[in-house]
Structure formats: C-alpha cells, structure tokens
C-alpha cells in the first residue's frame, strides 16, 4: 500500500489548495492499486526554534515527523504569498528537515503544485518550494509545473474540483508520483 501525505500550504478554512488535495485524494481512490491518503496540517506547528527542538520539539512536531516518516510520498499544494510559499509551510519544512541526517524528508518522493485566483496560479511559489525541498533531501517528482490559475472554490459539496482540465492535470501529477514510487520499489527489489 502506498501511503501519501497531503500537505496544504494554506491554513485558510476554504483554501483552494486544500481543495486541490481533496481532488488528489479522490483521484487516488479512483486509480488502480492500493493507496492511502492522509492529511498533514501545517497550522498547528509551533514556530521553529532550536531550543524547542533540543527539548524534543512538541507533540505536534513529533506527530508530523512520524506521519511523514511513515509515508511513501508527499503531495504539497501551495498558494503564493508575494511570490513565495507561505511562512506556515516553510516552518513545517524547517521542522521536518531536522535533525540533519535523520530528516523524514530525506529521499521522500514529493510532488508540488499550486493554486490561486490569480492568473499565474501561484506558480511563482513553486521554485522556492522545490529549492527548499531539494535542500531537505526530498526527491521532487519531475513533471511539468501544475499551477491552477484563476482558481475558484469548487462548486460541489464534497470540496473537490471536477473540471476535466484540472482533474486531468492533477491526475497526471498523481500518476507521476505513483510511477516514481514503482521505480523505487523495483530498484529495492533488484538490490535485495
């Protein structure tokens, strides 16, 4: 079973990026294979502070690290705040990157997308996010950027997008994650 942690960079209640991840969860349920999607909220994590880290973090930080460590992949959707990822998402990555050498992000297959009501769809935040993920040791999935511009809240009551173009682009990125996981499984089998 592939376990995928869904992370929204937005803490807003009716977030477009959370709707993107709700759509990804639905796509995973429809695809062949055994997949589990769980959500990690960045909202409840304290601000990163070395003293707190040396005191073993907080229960929220420990739970987030355990959740990511137990996952096969991450799927992150972020808004763009002044052309960058939101501080809450960066803070979560700072916590998850620690301690160096034992970070649960190391080698983690990770997909990145964004959504915004603006025409560019938050794409300006993606390079910085990809850069931070690379410095944290994550394996960012190679795929053409998926940025949903002009995004509006989903019309349906279940909180997911149904527009065929949006679903198709997110499905392509989701399949890229699953393909990368399959490649890693094949490499592991060869090494055994």
Secondary structure elements and their pairing?
Layout: E1 2-8, H1 16-30, E2 35-40, H2 50-54, H3 59-69, E3 73-78, H4 87-96, E4 109-115, H5 125-135, E5 139-140, E6 147-148, H6 164-191
Parallel strand pairs: 1-2, 1-3, 3-4, 4-5, 4-6
Helix pairs in contact: 1-6
- Architecture, CATH level 2? 3-Layer(aba) Sandwich
| Percentage of residues assigned to helices | 40-55%
How much of the polypeptide forms β-strand, as a percent range? 15-25%
Q: What is the straight-line distance between the termini? A: 19 Å
What would you say this structure looks like, in words?
It is globular, with a radius of gyration of 16 Å. Strands 1, 2, 3, 4, 5 and 6 form a six-stranded parallel β-sheet that branches. The model has no long low-confidence stretch (mean pLDDT 94). Strand 1, helix 1 and strand 2 form a beta-alpha-beta unit. The chain has a single domain, classed as Rossmann fold (3-Layer(aba) Sandwich), CATH 3.40.50.360. The chain is an alpha/beta fold and 192 residues long. It is 42% helix and 16% strand. It contains six helices and six strands. Helix 1 packs across helix 6.
Nutshell version of this structure?
This protein is of the alpha/beta class. Strands 1, 2, 3, 4, 5 and 6 form a 6-stranded parallel β-sheet that branches. The model has no long low-confidence stretch (mean pLDDT 94).
């Amino acid at each position: 079973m592939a376990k995928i942690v869904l992370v929204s960079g937005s803490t807003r209640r009716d977030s477009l990026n959370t709707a993107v991840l709700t759509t990804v969860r639905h796509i995973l349920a429809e695809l062949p294979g055994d997949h589990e999607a769980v959500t990690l909220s960045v909202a409840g994590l304290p601000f990163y502070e070395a003293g707190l880290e040396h005191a073993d973090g907080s229960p929220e930080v420990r739970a987030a690290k355990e959740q990511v460590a137990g996952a096969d992949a991450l799927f992150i959707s972020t808004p763009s705040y002044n052309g960058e990822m939101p501080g809450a998402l960066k803070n979560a990555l700072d916590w998850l990157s620690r301690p160096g050498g034992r970070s649960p992000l190391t080698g983690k297959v990770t997909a990145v997308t964004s959504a915004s009501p603006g025409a560019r769809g938050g794409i300006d935040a993606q390079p910085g996010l990809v850069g931070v993920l690379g410095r944290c040791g994550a394996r960012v999935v190679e795929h053409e950027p998926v940025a949903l511009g002009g995004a509006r809240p989903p019309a349906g009551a279940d909180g997911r997008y149904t527009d065929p173009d949006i679903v198709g682009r997110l499905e392509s990125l989701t399949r890229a994650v699953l393909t990368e996981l399959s490649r890693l499984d094949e490499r592991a089998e060869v090494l055994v």
